[in-house]
Amino acid sequence: QVHLVESGGGLVQPGGSLRLSCAASGTIFRIYDMGWYRQAPGKQRELVASITSGDSTNYANSVKGRFTISRDNAKNTVNLQMNSLKPDDTAVYYCNIREKPNSNPYWGQGTQVTVSS
After folding, report:
1. Taking a C-beta distance cutoff of 8 angstroms, is the pair 9, 108 a contact?
2. What are the Cα distances from residue 22, in Å, to 42, 78, 99?
3. Which of 13, 14, 43, 59 qualifies as a FRET site for 83, CA 20 to 30 Å off?
4. In this structure, how many other beta carbons lie within 10 angstroms of the beta carbon of residue 28?
5. What is the per-residue DSSP string for 12-50?
6. Phi and psi of 89, rounded to 5°?
7. Which residues contact 77 (CB under 8 A, 6 or more apart)?
8. Are strands 111-115 and 10-12 parallel, antiparallel or unpaired?
9. What is the pLDDT of residue 101?
10. Coarse DSSP helix, strand, coil percentages of the chain, rounded to the nearest 5 percent
């Protein structure tokens, strides 16, 4: 019943910026946390950033200081501002939402981010 849609991906040069957005719709009564993951070809999906219902945040060391996650609980949206992008940031980025700790999240379809000169 829950549908997530990501947007904002694209092609950008190293050092550039992109802003990803994710909008959730459907039957969802609470949100424990929301986050962004990414997966590069041939690699495992990894956590990029997450934000809890209390607005505490967590970032992968590789993006700390460059990316900022934010949320709007009233609209069930989560955003990821990505600055100082590097080629290693190239991946498909996925939005997710969890309703409680350690539960399986809902996933979006992914949006491609390519950082290349």
Report:
1. no
2. 25, 5, 16
3. 43
4. 15
5. E-TT--EEEEEEEESS----SEEEEEEE-TTS--EEEEE
6. -80, -10
7. 21, 22, 23, 24, 71
8. parallel
9. 87
10. 5, 50, 45
Q: What is the band of 74 on the pLDDT scale with cuts at 50, 70, 90?
A: confident
Which pLDDT band holds residue 69 (cuts at 50, 70, 90)? very high
- Residue owning tokens 């607005």: 55
Collapsing DSSP to helix, strand or coil, 12 comes out as strand
Distance CA 17, CA 68 (A): 11
Q: Quickly tell me which residue has 């009233």 as its tokens.
A: 74
Q: What angle do CA 104, 109, 113 make, to 5 degrees?
A: 115
Residue found under tokens 């955003």? 79
* CB within 8 Å of 44: residues ≥ 6 apart: none
3-state secondary structure of 89: helix
Q: Does an H or E element contain 7, and which? A: strand 3-7
Backbone CA torsion sign across 78, 72, 25, 18? negative
Is residue 79 scored above 80 in pLDDT?
A: yes
